[in-house]
Amino acid sequence: MSGPESRPGLEELVRRLRCAAEDGRLDERLLAPGAAWNLSLTLQHCAQSVGYSMTGYPLLRPGFFRLTAGRLAKAVFLRRGVMRHPLDAGIDGAPPADPELPPGAALAALVEVVAGFLEHGGPHPPHPAYGPCTHGEYAALHAMHVAEHLPGLR
Q1: What InterPro entries does UniProt report for this protein, alphabetically (predicted)?
Q2: How far is CA 102 from CA 39, 41, 114, in A?
Q3: b/e string for 109-141 if b means 16 or more Cβ within 10 A?
Q4: How high is the mean pLDDT of the chain?
Q5: Which of 12, 83, 97, 111 has the fewest CB atoms inside 10 Å of its own CB, making it the most exposed?
Q6: Rounded distance, CA 81 to CA 79, Å?
């Protein structure tokens, strides 16, 4: 089966990351080929993205972009069940990640923020590019985001 329904969700991807850590496989092999960031920076980036979907992103793209190109990109990603974006693009306005943070600590932060996201019952602030997202849309988009950065989890 292919399509969005066959792709692992956010909770499953985090479970796979925890298993990789337990098995001693939490390393650069999880990253996309030619990744610009090391594993720790990538995990920190993913954690930032999930966290900001609950608290608000530091900067939003112009409203016109979110209503047009951003809305279209979100619809395409959700329909296809995969995301394609520049893997070296940070979150605009976010503080820089710590390049010295051990991958295990970065994973712990990601696990914690994903747990908070999964329990989040309140409204979500708009995504900087896609605009308003439901909890389910954010969950799917976060899973695609993690999967794109960490194809070694498949």
Answers
A1: DUF1569
A2: 9, 9, 19
A3: bbbebbeebeeeeeebbbbbbbbebebebbbbb
A4: 95
A5: 12
A6: 6
The letter for the amino acid at 134 is T
CA 121 distance to own-chain centroid: 19
Contacts 24+ apart (CB under 8 A), 25-29: 26/103, 26/104, 26/107, 27/103, 29/152
Global model pTM greater than 0.90? yes
Lookup: tokens for 106 = 């970065």
Phi, psi of 131 (to 5 degrees): 80, -150
Tens digit of each residue's pLDDT (9 = 90 or more) over 120-148 = 999 999 999 999 999 999 999 999 999 99
